[in-house]
Amino acid sequence: MEKDGVRLPEYSVLMSVYKGEKPEFLRECIDSMLEQTFAPDDFVLVCDGPLTKELDNVISEYEHKHECFRVLRLPENMGVGYCANEGLKMCRNEYIVKMDSDDIALPERCELSMYMMAKHPGVDMLGAYISEFDSDTGEEIAVRKTPTGDSAIRKYARRRNPFNNPTLVYKKSWVEKIGGYTTVRRCEDYDFVVRMLAAGAVGRNIPKVLVRYRVNGGNYDRRRNWANTRSFIAVRWKIYRSGFSGLWDFTVTTAAQLVMFLLPSSLTGRFYKKLLR
Fold first, then answer.
1. CA nearest to 97, candidates 10, 214, 197
2. Which residues of the chain have pLDDT under 50?
3. How many CB atoms lie within 10 A of CB 240?
4. Which of 35, 53, 96, 244 qualifies as a FRET site for 235, CA 20 to 30 Å off?
5. Nearest Cα to 156, choosing from 86, 244, 89?
6. Is residue 239 within 8 Å of 194, Cβ to Cβ?
7. What Rg, from alpha-carbon coordinates, does the chain have?
8. What does the alpha-carbon distance between residue 192 and residue 203 come to, in Å, rounded to a whole number?
9. According to the model, what pLDDT value does residue 276 have?
10. Cβ contact 175:77 at 8 Å
């Protein structure tokens, strides 16, 4: 496909799913990727351990209907980072488009992303804005914006992930260069992004919403979960020890996470929205 005289490169969609996902959300997500204005020629879905019968039925449908749709089934739950590493081995293309199994990509997401990557070959990692919406009502909640240029991305990354993970596109060769994802069970996406940037990868964000991000009460509960809070702090300590961020960056972000953990559930969403702004 060509756009404004620029030849768009083929890409691989990489996604993982676990047994807790809702079949209707998975179906909506997969459809949103297969029905792109610039459709993928390679789609790798990693099943993170045994799934429910309902999820298996949804996946089987796509396996039979779409030649590009390929499935890797892991015998046990291994986590997002492990799934990404195993799925990357199967991906056929240099450009990898990440996707979460319950979000919805806007129709031009991949066309605009591949156009940007083709027009700016020096960019190694690309993202975009997301629109958070209430999973029950469909109501738009907030737009999560991210810095656009490489220098702003690097500065932002000292405290928070400068990319919205469901919008991420990157070069497979760069991931291989840094040794893939690490085995951290939470905050693996932030850890991955910082390691890419620290190794010299150039980042950029498209200042446009390209993915709708599903939010429900469980999202806020996970942010308040102690295991998640502890992992959040551990990853940021690792980033500080690597020299990528400073002690003040670590202190500020850790304090904010602890506040969120200690807040009552009724106030967590409000505090999170203030952080977005």
1. 10
2. 271, 276-277
3. 19
4. 96
5. 244
6. yes
7. 18
8. 13
9. 47
10. no
CA distance 179 to 191: 13
Tokens for 103, please give them: 């979000």
Contacts of 204 (CB under 8 A, 6+ apart): 116, 120, 123, 125, 126, 127, 148, 149, 150, 153
Amino acid (1-letter code) at residue 77: N
Spatial contact of 11 and 40, defined as CB atoms under 8 Å apart: yes
**How high is the pLDDT of residue 118?**
97
Per-residue CA distances from 172 to 13, 76, 151, 180 (Å): 12, 25, 22, 9
H or E stretch covering 18: none
Fold of 2-215: Spore Coat Polysaccharide Biosynthesis Protein SpsA; Chain A (3.90.550)
pLDDT number for residue 269:
54
d(CA 132, CA 97): 19
Q: What is the largest CA-CA distance in the chain?
A: 54
Per the rule left: phi > 0, alpha: psi between -120 and 50, beta: everything else, 113 is: alpha
CA-to-CA distance for 164 and 247, rounded, in angstroms? 24
| Residue position matching structure tokens 């789609």 | 43
Which of 212, 196, 213 has the alpha carbon at shortest distance from 204?
196
Amino acid at residue number 54: E
CB atoms within 10 A of CB 202: 18
CA atoms in the 13 A half-sphere facing the CB of 142: 13
**Three-class SS of residue 204?**
strand
Residue with tokens 């980033």: 239
Single-letter residue type at 176? E
Strands 203-215 and 104-105 turn out to be antiparallel
